[in-house]
Amino acid sequence: MPQDFVVARNPEEGTTLPYLLRVPLGPDGIVLKAKEPWPRTGKVYCHRAAGWPREPEVLEQVPTRSCVRRGASIDLVLDRGRENRSQFVLTRIRGGREAIFWQTARTAKQARPAVALPTARGSGVSALEIVVDSHERYAWRFEHQQATTVRRALRAGDYAVTSGDTVLAAVERKSLPDLVSTLTSGRMRYVLADLATLPSAAVVVEDRYSAVFRLDRVRPAVVADALGECQARFPAVPIVFCETRALAQEWTYRFLAATLVHVGEDTHAAHEAGPMPSAAPPSTAAVRAWARTQGLEVSDRGRISRQVLEAFDRRHG
User: Is pLDDT larger for residue 43 or for residue 149?
Assistant: First the structure.
């Protein structure tokens, strides 16, 4: 059983994961390809490698104090004074593909802003019912917010508020990998076109905008340009980056509640104002007086001729 944590050069040509990691877990260890040799500034994406090369170019070899798997993570403690504790998080993204992220306590803290979410009602709405699209996998439950959810098929968006069968506002939720896939495949235009037909809509991303420029499987400029083009084409549907899943959920809750209140205020104002009064028809006395000033023949009593009425209408709109 290997006792050392080893970092080596990845011999593959043209790879975006230039490092190999041998994690001392199990009889033969786990071999991963990695973007960086240590997670210093952010989480490092890793991918399982086919195996350890016969003659690796070893860059670093450090004895380990412990390497233990706990659920979906592997805790690694190295036998050195600095940069000694890290964790590999095993997860799955859309499509069921495995993804491994290598992080330290510092980078994990950077990914989770130290903020306390408010518990106050969104825009004062006491019982907000949020419709969740029936096709949404791993849907938000809004457990922290004062809202209830009901599942129903939505024509656009993943979360919505409705009035009867009418959708008042909807939010499309995206993880960063899903956002990149939707943008690069061209599907994002169709998503935004559907959302733009609603009175109010938005796209919320469970990550930071800066994460776009750390992508390694696609050129960051391609994604940034696609985002800019989408906002230029559909300015009424904002794309909001909310750093984390929890903050994205909170933003969605506040947005949907505010939309519900705004629509209610507009409806109340329209009801109070009542229908616009139509212009009163002119009196026969006014038409006769005008006709005489124009030299038109008109009787003192009885019906006014159609020609005079048409002339009056043309003059007065």
Answer: 149
**Gap between the Cα atoms of 123 and 253, Å rounded:** 10
Q: Measure Cα distances from 316 to 117, 132, 167, 276, 291 in Å.
A: 62, 55, 43, 20, 12
pLDDT in tens, 230-271: 999 999 999 999 988 889 999 999 999 998 888 755 444 444
User: What's the CA gap between 105 and 112, in Å, rounded?
Assistant: 11
pLDDT, tens only, 264-304: 554 444 444 555 555 567 788 888 887 787 777 778 878 88
Query: What is the mean predicted confidence (pLDDT) over 58-69?
Result: 94
Taking a C-beta distance cutoff of 8 angstroms, is the pair 39, 19 a contact? no
Instruction: Say which amino acid occupies 273.
Output: A
The predicted structure's pLDDT at residue 277: 54
Average pLDDT over residues 186-210: 93
Q: What is the dihedral of CA 91, 97, 98, 100, to 10 degrees?
A: -80
- Distance, in Å, from the CA atom of 238 to the CA atom of 252, rounded to the nearest integer, reads 12
Average pLDDT of 101-129?
73
